[in-house]
């Protein structure tokens, strides 16, 4: 897998951004996000249930009602984690395809295990990547989602 870095000019100050209650260099943030979600990947879905009291499931179903998935559509689920949105999309749209993009391979691996158990794997593609720099050609997808990214 190839990762692309950006070289800064020596005389350019690097921008800072927020990470929780801390101010960090922008170049550090991506790795911090990867570390956090990589560490919680095996418990991520349970954490969503606990933190939202299960309401996140209602939000996701409401989003599917709004999107109204259609037969044969292609979904890009950015920051897709374990694939919750994609699974819902595929259950509503016959012959649809979904690409799940996430920064952390651990989250995608959890999703792959779930997909195999629900027999959805043949309709899914799993891509490690950054939603801020999509590695896809224009007009590849019909629907784009980013739920908790």
Shape: globular
**Assembly status:** single chain
Number of strands: 6
Gyration radius from CA atoms, angstroms: 17 Å
Let me know the average pLDDT: 86
Number of helices: 5
Largest sheet: 4 strands, parallel
pLDDT < 50 stretches: 1-8
Strands in their spatial order, largest beta sheet: 5-4-3-6
- SS-derived structural category: alpha/beta
Could you give the distance between the termini?
Answer: 22 Å
- How much of the polypeptide forms β-strand, as a percent range? 15-25%
Helical percentage: 40-55%
Instruction: Encode the helix/strand succession as letters.
Output: EEHHHEHEHEE
Would you kindly provide a brief summary of this structure?
The chain is an alpha/beta fold. The protein has helices at residues 26-40, 44-52, 55-67, 84-92, 105-118, and strands at 16-19, 22-25, 74-78, 97-102, 124-128, 143-146.
What features would you describe in this structure?
The chain is of the alpha/beta class. It is 40% helix and 19% strand. The chain has helices spanning 26-40, 44-52, 55-67, 84-92, 105-118; strands at 16-19, 22-25, 74-78, 97-102, 124-128, 143-146. A four-stranded parallel β-sheet has the order 5-4-3-6, covered by helices on one side.
Key terms:
149 residues; alpha/beta; four-stranded parallel β-sheet; 5 helices
Please write out the topology:
Blueprint: E1 16-19, E2 22-25, H1 26-40, H2 44-52, H3 55-67, E3 74-78, H4 84-92, E4 97-102, H5 105-118, E5 124-128, E6 143-146
Parallel strand pairs: 3-4, 3-6, 4-5
Antiparallel strand pairs: 1-2
């Amino acid at each position: 897998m190839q990762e692309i870095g950006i070289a800064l000019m020596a005389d350019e100050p690097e921008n800072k951004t927020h990470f929780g209650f801390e101010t960090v260099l922008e170049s550090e943030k991506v790795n911090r996000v990867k570390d956090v979600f990589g560490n919680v990947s095996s418990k991520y879905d349970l954490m969503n249930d606990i933190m939202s009291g299960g309401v996140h499931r209602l939000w996701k179903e409401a989003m599917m009602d709004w999107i109204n998935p259609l037969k044969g559509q292609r979904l890009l689920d950015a920051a897709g984690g374990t694939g919750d949105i994609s699974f819902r999309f595929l259950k509503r749209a016959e012959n649809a395809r979904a690409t799940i993009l996430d920064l952390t391979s651990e989250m995608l691996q959890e999703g792959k295990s779930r997909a195999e158990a629900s027999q959805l794997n043949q309709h899914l593609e799993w891509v490690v990547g950054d939603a801020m720099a999509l590695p896809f050609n224009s007009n590849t997808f019909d629907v784009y989602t980013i739920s908790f990214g």
